[in-house]
Amino acid sequence: MNTIAEHIADFLKKFPPFDNLTFQELSEIATSIRVINLEKHKILFQINDVLHDSFYVVASGVVNLSVIADAEETLLNKCYEGDIFGLRPFFAKNNYQMTAKAREESIIYAIPIATFRPFVANNSEVLDFLLHSFASNTSNPTDKENVSGKLVSDNVYFSDQQSEIQYFQSLSYNVAPITGSETTTVQEAAQQMTNTLSTSVIVCEKSMPIGIVTNTDMCSKIATGRFPINTTLDKIMSSPVVTVVENVSLAEAQLLMLKYNVTHLCVTQDGTDKSIVKGVISEHDLIVAQASNPGVLIKEIKRSQTPKDLKSIRERLTELIQKAIQKNIPLSRVNILASEINLALIKRAIELSILDLGSPPARYAWLSIGSQGRREQLLTTDQDSMLIFEDVTAEKYRDVKDYFLKLGKRATAILEKAGYEYCPFGHMASNMLWCKSLTDWTNQYQSWMNTPGENSNQLSSIFFDFEIVVGEKKIEEAIENVVFNNIKNNTLLFDFLGNDTLRKNSPLTFFKKFNVEEKGPNKDKFDIKTRALMPLIDGARLFSLSHNMRGITSTYLRFKQLAILDPRNSEIYINCSKAFITLSKFRTMEGLKNDSSGQYINLMELTKAEKETIKKALEPMEELEDLIKDKFQLTQFS
Length: 638
Fold this sequence. Notes:
Blueprint: H1 3-12, H2 23-30, E1 34-38, E2 43-45, E3 54-60, E4 63-69, E5 72-79, E6 84-85, H3 88-91, E7 99-102, E8 106-112, H4 113-122, H5 124-136, H6 162-168, E9 179-180, H7 186-196, E10 200-205, E11 208-214, H8 215-223, E12 243-244, H9 250-260, E13 264-268, E14 277-282, H10 283-289, H11 294-303, H12 307-326, H13 331-357, E15 364-369, E16 385-389, H14 394-417, E17 435-437, H15 438-450, E18 466-471, H16 473-487, H17 491-502, E19 526-527, H18 528-546, H19 555-565, H20 570-594, E20 600-601, H21 608-618, H22 620-631
Helix pairs in contact: 1-2, 4-5, 5-9, 11-12, 11-13, 12-13, 13-14, 15-16, 17-18, 18-19, 18-20, 18-22, 19-20, 20-21, 20-22
């Protein structure tokens, strides 16, 4: 082995996944590696370039990975010594989705994919590294500390958790594949493939797959003259065929194609070649499926022109959420992903309204409140919002408020057409009570917080859960400052909020049976929102306010942070965080099943084990209630 190859092998051995290979294997790879000297600002590949035959490792220097969205270049990642990038050719056949450019003078190792592929297919550790990196988009799935050397995904995501969605996203594929027998001739099969624009024919025996013939086989074995056109399929088919189950995910399909170096997967009833054929997945199907990943949904939202466009995207989001539940993806992760897409949908509704009305006459902030303000809106529940505009002179006030009320009405109407129902209590920016100047909102919060008993009919705790959708961040910060300035030593407000939290009806009877609705359309159903989730949501908010916890609105994350801030009661908070996730999942499943808000659970449709799981999740609520009574002076409003 030459000195350069030996040096490269020594270098690679220090970084994953190469550390799972033997030095002999690395030496074999190193002899085929090209060394690229990349000058500062030199581009290695850019968006829409045809895929290279190699992937890359940074030997020295820094390479920036970026995308261009809405005419702006956005830096996605920086690749340092030992980092792998440019792996897209492993997972897809469409062009590069990002640009790789040297931030400084760099040395890059180009590793031919054809050389490396066998080591991926035959080494479970290497494949596992790729699988987990692709599925979680973490820097290094085998080591959570700051270890040099990471795999950089070449899929474009708008947040670190986006690849989770792509991992569980199910595929659409050809459910009526062309099939033939061993004695079918190539000419007959080719004619069928041409007529149906298919790229493969599955060879079956008693409806079970025994082989496959693809376009590639036709080109390499027939067009080259190696076999005559009247050859039977058994002479040129690939066997055995790689089979998968019907609900295989995008990422799983990509990795199977990588592992077995194939371009088609056969879908069977039980995922083996011993059951009947149900369909076929091609590389083209993978490319089409990637158009439904969250990053693409965000781009589509930005291009949307009508409420119908937004509704279509919201329905696709619902499908993704449903797949997440089926694949047991952590609900806390799904909440983050869904909230980003919901946020983009709301923002686009506001932008479309501004296009109709003209530019706003003053700076403003549109805030989502309630479940979206907490980043917990998985179902198409009602919309909650508030609008704050900057202070203007008295003579301008009426016209400015009139504009923003019109903006509120237009945007909420668009959202209603997109599938978000109006808030039955009028907690929306279209309501003149919730569309005010910064000073008016400041006075409103001060009144709520300092005289809560007098304003109990107006005060809704959801106004403490807010997140900016569009507008001036400083306006949101101003409201946040009002809240936390008025919370200091405000025993009266904590008295009110504490009692309000405990006022919710108990979820279980004295005999530990579910407290169900006694009349009305939901008779005999369990109100999981009011009786189970709201006490947890209210409790998390109450304690987070008392600890001056800023910037965390999610109920789950509030409890996790409280466990750190109050270690003496950490077990209670941790149990509450788990309970919230469990109960939220039941509500989400109910809502997805019945296309509803999921508020009322039909207990008759649950198994005994599921009922026990809910009851188990309700147990921490008693401890939380005791903690509230112990910490806050609940007297005046009791």
